[in-house]
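Students often ask why inverse folding is considered easier than folding. One informal answer: many sequences map to the same fold, so there is more than one right answer. In these notes we will look at a single instance of the problem. The structure comes first.
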C-alpha cells in the first residue's frame, strides 16, 4: 500500500470521530447497566470487549489506515480518564500504539492482524479499573457515595490487589471472542475490501 493511499484524509477523520463516539457510548452504557451489581461490574471489561468487537472490526475496515486505531485510543483514553483516572489515558495510548503496529504489520489487509490488534485494544475497556490498583480507597469511597456502603464493601471484598491482572485477562479473552464474532459478521465486507 502506498504512503499516499495510506494517509488519513478529512473523510477518514470524520468516520473515525463517529466510530469513536459510538465506541465510547457503548462502553459507558454497558458499564453503567452492569455497575448496579458489584460482581457484574467486575465482568464489564469482558462483556464490553465482546460487544465492542463488531464496532472495532467495522471501524478498521472503514478506515484501514495508519493512525486510525491511535485516534480511537485517544478518544477512549480521554473519556475514560475523566474523574482523575489519568492512568487510563496513558494505558489507552499504549494499547493504541501496540494495536496500530499489529494492524500495520498485516499491511491493513490481514483479518488475523486486525483480530490480534483488537485483543490488545480491548484491554482499554478496563481502563477505569486502574483506580483499584493505585487509589482503591478513593474508588471505594466514590462507589459508596453512588451505591451505598454495602456495595462498596462487596466490591472491596472481591477486588484483591491482583484483580487488575484478572481484568486484563478477561478483557483480552473478550477481545478475542469479539474480534472473531466481528470478523465473521463482517466477512463479506472484509472480502470486498480485500482483507483476507
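Output (designed amino acids):
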Amino acid at each position: 500500500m502506498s504512503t499516499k493511499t495510506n494517509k488519513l484524509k478529512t473523510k477518514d477523520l470524520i468516520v473515525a470521530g463517529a466510530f469513536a463516539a459510538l465506541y465510547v457510548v457503548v462502553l459507558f452504557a454497558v458499564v453503567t447497566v452492569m455497575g448496579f451489581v458489584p460482581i457484574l461490574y467486575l465482568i464489564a471489561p469482558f462483556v464490553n470487549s465482546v460487544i465492542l468487537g463488531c464496532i472495532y472490526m467495522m471501524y478498521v475496515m472503514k478506515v484501514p489506515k495508519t493512525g486510525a486505531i491511535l485516534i480511537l485510543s485517544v478518544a477512549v483514553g480521554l473519556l475514560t480518564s475523566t474523574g482523575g483516572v489519568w492512568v487510563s489515558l496513558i494505558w489507552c495510548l499504549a494499547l493504541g500504539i501496540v494495536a496500530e503496529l499489529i494492524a500495520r504489520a498485516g499491511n491493513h489487509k490481514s483479518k488475523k492482524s486486525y483480530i490480534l490488534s483488537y485483543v490488545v485494544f480491548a484491554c482499554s475497556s478496563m481502563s477505569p479499573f486502574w483506580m483499584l490498583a493505585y487509589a482503591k480507597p478513593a474508588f471505594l469511597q466514590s462507589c459508596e457515595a453512588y451505591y451505598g456502603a454495602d456495595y462498596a464493601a462487596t466490591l472491596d471484598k472481591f477486588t484483591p490487589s491482583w484483580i487488575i491482572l484478572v481484568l486484563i485477562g478477561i478483557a483480552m479473552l473478550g477481545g478475542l471472542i469479539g474480534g472473531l464474532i466481528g470478523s465473521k459478521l463482517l466477512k463479506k465486507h472484509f472480502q470486498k475490501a480485500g482483507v483476507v
